[in-house]
């Protein structure tokens, strides 16, 4: 998967914005101001960090050994880094992106959820 496909997929989601808060090589996608995906733009192959349920994160790391690893520079329990070199199916990348997005949406405060629902 390339950056354009991943970026378009993220930006098509409700209330998503993109930022470069850390440096010009780290693209961050946020929903209602909270991160759900980070992309290392200068990495070859492309690397994406996504939030994940801790138990599922461990299962994915075992199943995709060396392709899905503990989140680089992130909380290793809650974040995975995916190496997008063609070995992880696109459908799984989209599914895990949705999972990360929904984890964040479900963690919004009541006030944020109300704002989100009104968008």
From TrEMBL:
One of its GO terms (molecular function) is DNA binding. InterPro entries: YjbR, YjbR-like_sf, YjbR/MT2646/Rv2570-like. It comes from the Bacteria. This is MmcQ/YjbR family DNA-binding protein. SUPFAM superfamilies: YjbR-like. Keywords: DNA-binding.
